Amino acid sequence: MLIRKPSVLLKCSMCNVSVSSVRKINKQSSGEYCLQLVRKTDFEHYLTNLFLPDSLRRHAFAIRAFSAEISGVRDIVSDRTIGQMRMQFWKDTVESIYNDKVPQHPVAIELHAMISQHPNVSKLLLNRIIESREQFLADRPFNSLEEVDAYGKGAFSSVYLLLLEIMNNDCGHLKHAAAALGKCEGLITLLRGTPYNASQRRVYLPTNMLMERNLSSQNVIRDGHENEDLREVFEIIASRAEEHLNSARLRKKYIKRDGAKVLLPALVADSYLDALSKVKCNVFDPKLTVRNSMLPLHLWIYRFRGKY
């Protein structure tokens, strides 16, 4: 069997992700903006979006772009008040598009197109994506793992639940798996973001876990790469993420192929947790920043087999 290079694989007719299917999005400048924003800020979800059914792909890029706009607010503002104003803009935007008043912003235009085609899409879920990120404007750390789970549910599970609404999903198993995967991604995002946030003198790790080990935010900022007690914190968070991932996969026999495509990011989460275990849960290890060049191939295999 001929194995194509990953770069060629994304254009392969076998995986039904052709250049023409991407160009369908690119015909509209707003759609192209969303696609390129996700590609630039969230490359792994950009890849997994490409493997979604045609009817879902454009809306998935709109939702992911919306999430990217919200998550990027903290890093583009130095003043909390300005950050709150940006968050309020997106809250007002969500309210407006449900009243057919569309701000001239590419993401707003795409979200309105999505809602026009699928009026059942929940305003509540879009607002949860915004609300889940607001705590970062004050650089407030999580108090506990339960708070991280709540963050993951709002920021990531909401994305999957929106996609399921567009699909008119009536499978409770798929909904449960999507919620669990979102919580897993929230925990992994906390781990992956720790080195960068520490470099900006920001620490979001659960305070109760740090205090139990007589650690402070300064330990993370100054010697996070070599502190053994801190590595134990990372290991516990990773174990929690793996529990959620296993919970999401536990119901795979009840989930149809299109549902499995929505959950393909589980493979990305699995890949990171595996890489993290190989460096003994040292989230500061530079090996974790190397992009997985085999991911497109693995995604295609899983999609072809109806797995996630």
Percentage of β-strand residues: under 5%
Mean pLDDT figure: 91
Shape: globular
Distance between the termini: 23 Å
Number of separate strands: 0
Radius of gyration: 19 Å
Can you count the helices? 17
Helix content: 55-70%
Characterise this structure.
- This protein is mainly α and 308 residues long.
- 68% of the residues lie in helices and 0% in strands.
Précis, in short:
The chain is mainly α. It has helices at residues 6-9, 19-26, 29-41, 43-50, 54-71, 73-76, 80-97, 106-117, 123-131, 145-166, 172-199, 207-211, 217-223, 228-250, 257-262, 265-278, 295-305.
Give a topology summary.
Blueprint: H1 6-9, H2 19-26, H3 29-41, H4 43-50, H5 54-71, H6 73-76, H7 80-97, H8 106-117, H9 123-131, H10 145-166, H11 172-199, H12 207-211, H13 217-223, H14 228-250, H15 257-262, H16 265-278, H17 295-305
Task: Give the tags.
single chain; 68% helix; 17 helices; disordered N terminus; 308 residues; mainly alpha
